[in-house]
Every structure is written in structure tokens, then in C-alpha cells.
Amino acid sequence: MPLFFWGYGMSEHENIGDSRFPGVTRRGFLKAGSALATLPFVLTRPATAADNDISETAEATAERVVQTCSTFDCGGKCDIRAHVADGVITQITTRPDNELDPDMPIMRACVRGRSYRKFIYHPDRLKYPMKRVGKRGEGKFERISWDEATTLIASNLKRITAQYGPESRFVHVGTAVSGGTFSGDKMMRRLLNLTGGYLESYHSVSMGNTAAATPYTYGVAASGNSLDTLMETKLVILWGHNPTETIFGHTNHYFQQMKQNGTRFIVVDPRYSDTVSSLADEWIPLLPSTDNALMDAMMYVIISENLHDKAFIERYTIGFDEASMPQGVPANESLVAYLMGDKDGVVKTPQWAEKITHVPAQTIRQLARDYATTKPAALIQGWGPQRHNCGERTARGSTLLATLTGNVGVKGGWAAGYGGCANRKFAAGPEMPENPVKESISVMNWVQAADDASKVTQEDGLKGRDKLKSNIRILFSLAGNYLANQNPDLQQAVKVLEDESKIEFIVVSDLYMTPSARYADILLPETSFMERWNIGETWGTASYLVLSEKLIEPEFERRSDYDWQREVAAKLGIEPQFSEGRTEKQWIEHIWEQTRLSMPDEHLPTFSELQKKRKHLFKSKPYVAFEDNIRDPQNNPFPTPSGKIEIFSKRLYDMKHPEIPALSHYVPAHEGPEDELAKQFPLQLITWKGKNRANSTQYANPWLQEVQVQKLWINPQDAEKRGIRQGDIVRIHNLRGVCQVPAEVTVRIMPGVVAMQAGAWWQPDADGVDHGGCPNVLSSARITPLAKGNSHQTMLVEVAKYESAV
Ligand SMILES: Nc1nc2c(c(=O)[nH]1)N[C@H]1C(S)=C(S)[C@@H](COP(=O)(O)OP(=O)(O)OC[C@H]3O[C@@H](n4cnc5c(=O)[nH]c(N)nc54)[C@H](O)[C@@H]3O)O[C@H]1N2
Ligand SMILES: Nc1nc2c(c(=O)[nH]1)N[C@H]1C(S)=C(S)[C@@H](COP(=O)(O)OP(=O)(O)OC[C@H]3O[C@@H](n4cnc5c(=O)[nH]c(N)nc54)[C@H](O)[C@@H]3O)O[C@H]1N2
Ligand code: SF4
Ligand SMILES: [Mo]
């Protein structure tokens, strides 16, 4: 059994959701946190109805088996079958093997889906609304009534808006409900827009760097095909992509078939991921953040061996060589000039790249040849490589490779860049009144905007104004753990959160007492997706909608965000405009009807038909991004300034920023292997999204804790140098923080790199040492230069043995 710190070491009897909560002090909690070995807090839960033998329950009552889905941001919208009897979920299964549905990709429940029941029925779930009684962050709360909670929210909204203006109101990242079309997070924005607006934020921490960079090549971001077009593809290069764990719509449905059909898969990743073990014919590890050096050398090989697609380049692109450069650019700025070292004297050979990436020159040469000579071939980049401070360059670099080899706009190829499919269809959402506040910040600016808004500049990401009008004074974090867990550089964030004179009022809704929930002033116990109505939407390249039905009644005083928001709206005198008289279910029916009307050709079922059918698959023809632009460029120019694919981007060139080169070529990353800081902190730490949680959601699910324990992956060479053996407790540190976890000494990670799964809960002891293995104690809040986005993955650390394995 893995060690398990449920709710910071509180036993279930001390469940913080209960008014009997004894007020575990920070000191008490910290002691509990460091008393790991004494094991007083391992979860032992008496059996409840939900744990009953399933077959017995099913026999005893008329069991209903309902296809449904979670609305998590987990990459999938799988075929979940909830077994419901007597108002209780008794079992979760998935599409049975004998149920044939030729139209629907097979989406079997992953291990997280199989564990939903434990997530929903766990005794540590929050039960009652609570208000903070200790210092902010201390974790002391007391139970209050819903009337008091909504009165406090309404009165603070009024007071803070009157004092600081609507610009002081902020709704935070909260992705646990973003897989559904309706959420408390969206409805909060609606409520705020009806009462003066709020400070909007932009940038997706998931793939915002890619989304910002891709249009500089193609004019638009979405550049993925539907995956059915890849069935004949002979070679797929998965570049920092791990869909065996991250799911990505119905990717695995197709990849598994392709594998059986003989498609060759190569994976470029510093880690031997589950995708490498399940799909790859070849694994190419490279040092994190050096992807562009590998790409540059591949382009050098392709061009110097005359393997590039000359006709394609000539017809559709600018910037390849000096003859195809835009006006007003001096000599030696083209791709060929860069690769041949015409300006800097450095020829971008495989030997050059080997030193930077640690990929052997011969492997680079072979990879380049394989990619350029297999027609068509698909280079598909995941989002791990772009969650770096060089992420925009990495994302655009892969588009140049796709272009050189003529893999853009062709069936079986892939344009790289942002791989979301442009013909994907969405459900409508709740109607959103216009936000009267016109300025917006990058999500990366929120700590600064809370600390001292006068310091947030346009260079940092401020839009619509040259200065913010107000600090963030009231913050809603609904279904997120982005105050003190998933956000980078936790220590600087919590310093601002702990200062109660900065953000004056923080409302959090969650199912659990997460590290972020501890910073709430008002903490609200939301219903789970099984206790609400919704419509689930797929990711990226998949395209279908699934009804997420309310299957069970909420227990205790749990309420959906929408439900309490109606009460707040009433106290602000705007309930009729806010709700338009609809219950949650009526909103879902309304949204479904709007979706149906907006796509008459799709023949969507009516809502009552949907309740029987459960899902709707959009039957689109196979879709290849940019096919029209390639077939008939005269009439369908690329939406770039030149109308062509821009290998060289004059728009980037004109920014005159050393980290935004016009060719998106290799530039050493801050805190990459070439940084001076590497002398002090010689290991690169990366994180990955593992199979047993969706970000931090379900972190504390005991079934999922058994699947995988939070550990630091370290190569035997690096471990040996530090006297670290399998299972030893190690401390990972840099100037921002210290984490303490067991070591997994494994060749699954390359030398020079260590890795930890993202999403573990932050559990600091009295000295601030994190015992949870939350990598954001160590990650950096540095903003990417073009997107003004996140770089969670770029960090240098040192690792030291702390205790021997027992
Ligand atoms: N099981 C599971 N699935 C999930 C999620 C989850 O938490 N758990 N989260 C969902 C969410 S919100 C998102 S945004 C997506 C994210 O999906 P991704 O961003 O694609 O997932 P990651 O695991 O962060 O990164 C993918 C791979 O990139 C590798 N990598 C890291 N740095 C580099 C680098 O510098 N170069 C290269 N070549 N590779 C690198 C990592 O080792 C990892 O194997 O996944 C979704 N799916
Ligand atoms: N180090 C590192 N950090 C990362 C990343 C990384 O790769 N590495 N990835 C980043 C990415 S891509 C993302 S998307 C973010 C995700 O960061 P967040 O958006 O904060 O997502 P979660 O961590 O899943 O937190 C969601 C919270 O919502 C709660 N929840 C679940 N269901 C419900 C519900 O129905 N109602 C309510 N009210 N709450 C609910 C869960 O218990 C959980 O505490 O993390 C980012 N952080
Ligand atoms: S957690 Fe996500 S990927 Fe797993 S079964 Fe549920 S919907 Fe599918
Ligand atoms: Mo994400």
C-alpha cells in the first residue's frame, strides 16, 4: 500500500467538511505531514453501501446501466457505463466487447474512469459550505449555512465592486469542468458580466504556446487532420506526445489499428513513456528544450541530401532560400542560409546537434532520412514540448519540417503545430452577455495583478490598456487547483495569497480539501458530474457529444455552483436575467436545442431522443487541414501576410526579439542545459501527465494511489553519482523550493534529466519542504516571449539522497 496523506493527514473523522472539524492548526498539520513513517493517517474506511458486492446489488434491485461521461479535462470522453440501483452508483463499466457500433470509435474507460465511484463516494468529500476562521492558508474553517455563504459572496461582490470597480474581479483557471458545455465557471462569468464585468484572462496553459506560434506559419492555429486520414500512413513521429496516457480524444482507437496495419511509430521524448512501450518501434530521447536543435539538424540533413520537396517549397512557401524572402529583409536570413551557417558561421550539422541534444548524430541523420523519404509521413507533436519557455519555437519548428517534406495538406501527412482539427464541432454554451471590461491579462499575470497591478505591463501580457485599473480583489476558483498546486512557482503565489490585504475575498468550490482550497475565504462543496446534468465534449481531433446525466442525488449540503449562483444573483437583484428562469437541466435542454438548431445538416436528436441515444457522433468526411490551400492556392491562399506558408515570418522578424527568431530555430532556453545555472543545478526536471489522475483531480483517490506512487525518475548514471539507490528518499531542490519523494532509479529517463508526474498535492512541512511531490514547488513562472504563456516544464534542479530505502 502506498503512503497516503488524505486531506493533509486528517483522518476521516476529522473531515474538514464537518462542523466538528477540530481546527487542525498549521503546526499540527505540518507535524502530521512530516510524520510520514508513523502512518497514522492511512485511509481506512468502513464499507458503505457503495462498496457492497456489486452483483448482489444488481440482483436485488432493478439496475439501470447508463452511458455517461465525466466533464474532466482528461483528454477523453470515454464510453462510461454507470450502473445505478436504488439511487446509488454500484459499478462503473465500459462499452461491452459484444456491443458493436461501427460508427463510434472505441473509447474504453481508463483507470481513472474505472475509479469514478471512489471519487464520488469518498468520505473525505466536502459536505457543507464553510468559511475561513484562521489565517488565510492555515486551513481552519467552520461550517456555515448556505444562506450565510451566499450573503457573504453577494455582499463582498457589492462592496469590492463599489470600492475597486469590476476590473478587480477575476475568475481563475478551473479545468475540472471544462470537458462539459455547462459549468459554474462559465455561469460565474455570466453573472459577473451582468453586474459590470470582470478582468478577463487569456492563454491556455495546456497548449497556448503552440496555439500562438502556429499561425505564424499557416495563418491559423488549428492544423490537424481527422485521424481516419492517417490509416495508410507508413511513418508517424510522435514528438513529445504520450496519448497512451493522455488519451487525446480517440487517438488510441486509430493508433492501435495503425500499429496493427504496420505503421511505424517513432517517439521523441526524454522519457520512455507508456506510449513508447505500447506503440514505438524506436525511442529517441533528447534533452528537454533542445528539440529545435534536433529539428534544425534534421532540416540540414534533408536539404543537404537533397531530400526536400522542391516543387512543394517553390509553389507554396516563402523564406526557404534567399530567392524566396519577403521584401525588406537583409541577406542571409533564409532557412538555407541559417542551416548552412552563412550568417553565424555555425553549420547546423548532426554533430552540432548531438552536443546540444545528446541524440547521436547518426540517429539524427537516420530520423531525417526516414521522415523525408517516407511519403506521406506524420510528425505529430504533443503539448509537453511546448510547455517550456522555448515552447513557441518548438511548436513552429515542427511546422517547418512538415513543410520541407511536403506533408502539409496531404492525406496521411500532418502539418504539425497545433494538432486540433479545424472541422471539429462543438456544442453551444450558455449565452454570455458582453463583458464591459475590455482589458485582459495572460493567466500568467494573475499573481502580479493580485500583488501590484501597476506593475503588469503590455510586455508581460496586458491587453486592451496600458495599465490595469485595479489589483485583483475578489477571486473565484471554481473547479480548479490553480491557487497553490497546478500553477508554477507556488511559493511566490502563496506569499501573495497569504497577504489578506491583497486579494480580499476568495471563493473556492471543489469536491475536496485541496492545497488551493486551503486558501479560500469561502469554501463550497460542489456536486460531482454524477450529480448534475451536462453535455460532454471531446478533445482535439474527436468529434462527438455525450449526455452526462444526473444519476444520483447530492448528499449532505452539496450544491452545484449554478445553484448557489442563482441565490447570489437573487441577492444582487438580477436572478431573472441570470437564470432566465431555467434550472440546470433546463439549461442543458436549452443548450442542446441551440446546438441542434445551429447545425441543421447534422440532424441532431431532440433532447428526449438524446436521453435514449446518449451520444451524437458528428459524421464528417475525412478531413485534411489545408487541403484546399494546396489543391488550389490561387483561390485559397494561406491566411498569412504573403498568402503562402511562411517558413520565414516577417511578422516575427519585425519583433526583433532574440527569443522569437523569424525561423523559430534553436535558441538555448532559460534554465535549459546550456544555462549558467546548470553548473549549480545540473539536472533538468520535467513533468508528465500520468494515467492515475487528470492533473490533480482524483489525486487522493485511494484506488488510483495504488496505480502509481509519486516518485522521481532518475537515470542510474545520475543516481550513482549521488549515491542514490532504488527507493531511497531524495530531495529535489532549486532556488525556488524543495520536494522530497522516493527515487525510481530507471533507464526510462535519460541521463541529465529527472522526471516527476504532474498533479500531486503540495504538502509542505514546517521547513517548507514538500512531501507530496508537487513539481510546481520547483517550476518557474517565467512568461514565454510570444504567447505570454506558461513554461511549467523548464526547470533546473539538483537531487540529493536524504534517507536510505527501508
Ligand atoms: N492521464 C492523463 N491524461 C491527461 C491529463 C492528465 O493529467 N492525466 N491532462 C490532460 C491535459 S489538461 C492536457 S493539457 C493534456 C496534455 O498533454 P501533453 O502536454 O501532451 O502531456 P505531457 O505528459 O505534459 O507531455 C507529453 C510528453 O512530453 C514529454 N516532454 C516533456 N518535455 C519535453 C521536451 O522538451 N521535448 C520533448 N520532445 N518531449 C518532452 C513528456 O515526457 C511527456 O511524455 O493531457 C490531458 N490528458
Ligand atoms: N508541473 C506542471 N504543472 C501543470 C501542468 C504540467 O504539465 N506540469 N499542466 C498544466 C495544465 S495543462 C493544466 S490544464 C492545469 C490544470 O490545473 P487545474 O485546472 O487546477 O486542474 P486540476 O488540478 O484538475 O484541478 C481541478 C480541481 O477541481 C476539482 N473538481 C473536480 N470535479 C469538480 C466539480 O465537478 N466541481 C468542482 N467545483 N470541482 C471539481 C478537483 O477536485 C480539483 O481539485 O495544470 C497545469 N499545471
Ligand atoms: S477519466 Fe477521461 S480518459 Fe479516463 S475514462 Fe474518464 S473520460 Fe475517459
Ligand atoms: Mo491542460
Alpha-beta classification: alpha/beta
Ligands in the model, by name, code or SMILES, are: ligand MGD, iron/sulfur cluster, molybdenum atom
Q: Distance between termini?
A: 15 Å
* Contiguous runs where pLDDT drops below 50 for at least 5 residues: 1-59
Average pLDDT number: 92
CATH-assigned fold name of the largest domain: Dimethylsulfoxide Reductase, domain 2
Taking the sheet with the most strands, its summary is: 6 strands, mixed
Describe the strand arrangement of the main beta sheet, using strand numbers: 5-4-16-15-14-6
CATH superfamily of the largest domain: Dimethylsulfoxide Reductase, domain 2
Shape: globular
Strand content: 5-15%
Radius of gyration: 26 Å
**Which range best describes the helical content: under 10%, 10-25%, 25-40%, 40-55%, 55-70% or over 70%?**
25-40%
Total domain units: 3
